Fold this protein.
Amino acid sequence: MRIRVLGEEYLERFLLNAHFDNASCFAAMEDIKDIYHRNMVDSYTVGNSQKWVTMTIKYYFILKSINGNTVNLQAILSMAPFNQYKLFPVDSKIIKLVSRTRVPVFNLHGCSWHTCDNLDYFQDFWENLERSISRDFVDIPFVWELISWVPSAKALAKPQIYHP
């Protein structure tokens, strides 16, 4: 299988057949990594795969919930497979936000999200954060990420210099 058809073939099968439980998502992460490695992209890591899978699911739920120009969070929460979905995209902004706001600090054992090649590190991160966010009165990690990422990204953004 060529990498460029990964989205067409694997993505469609994944979205149609997955229940978005952790086991299905973790299997997809490993499958995608294996596809890249078989196609001689040896630098592709579990970190890259987790981002691919979790962003795909995030956009899937968001696109299915759009009502006009707004995302309908209630619609996302009522979707059948959503109640099993415990994951969210891990990137540098989320890691920085978590390290600033959570005690104890959760990280990926010192590696960055895109170089991390250990699925157990991501599993620990998600599980620890799920236990931690309950004190924020947000019990669903996916929802926590939705409401946390944009403000975090804005806070970490570098000022843009305008040149006419």
Notes: Residues 46-65 form the longest helix (20 residues).
